[in-house]
Amino acid sequence: MTDVELEKYYRSFEEMFRSDGWKNLMQDMKGSAENVNSVEACQDDKDLYFRKGQLVVMANMLNLEAQIETAKQEQDEEEVEID
């Protein structure tokens, strides 16, 4: 990816993170994660592994903003070292 493309990529994420829709999604995701994160509600081992998979996806979504910010900072640091 070129620097211009990468900047557009990060900017599109930043715009999304500021949107009301993203904030609503994150609130719903947090509530869902709390409901899914219950071993007591598991019916069997298949259900346990299914819930584990759900939680992995939810955690990735909930941490996406921090992951993108970290990647952007690392890219900025690399650019400074190159200059």
Question: What this model shows, in words?
Answer:
The protein is mostly helical and 83 residues long. The protein has one domain (3-82). The chain has three helices and no strands. Helix 1 crosses helix 3 and helix 2 packs across helix 3 (45-82). The radius of gyration is 17 Å and the shape is elongated.
Give me a quick take on this structure.
The chain is an all-alpha fold. It has helices spanning 3-18, 20-36, 45-82.
Count of extended strands: 0
Query: What share of residues are in beta strands?
Result: under 5%
How many domains is the backbone divided into?
1
Coarse shape? elongated
* Main beta-sheet annotation: none
User: What percentage of residues falls in helices of 4 or more residues?
Assistant: over 70%
Distance between the termini: 18 Å
Radius of gyration, Cα only, in angstroms?
17 Å
Provide the residue-averaged pLDDT. 92
Put simply, the count of helices is 3
Which sequence of SSEs, written as H and E, runs from N to C? HHH
Runs in which pLDDT lies below 50 for 5 or more consecutive residues are: none
Structural class: mainly alpha
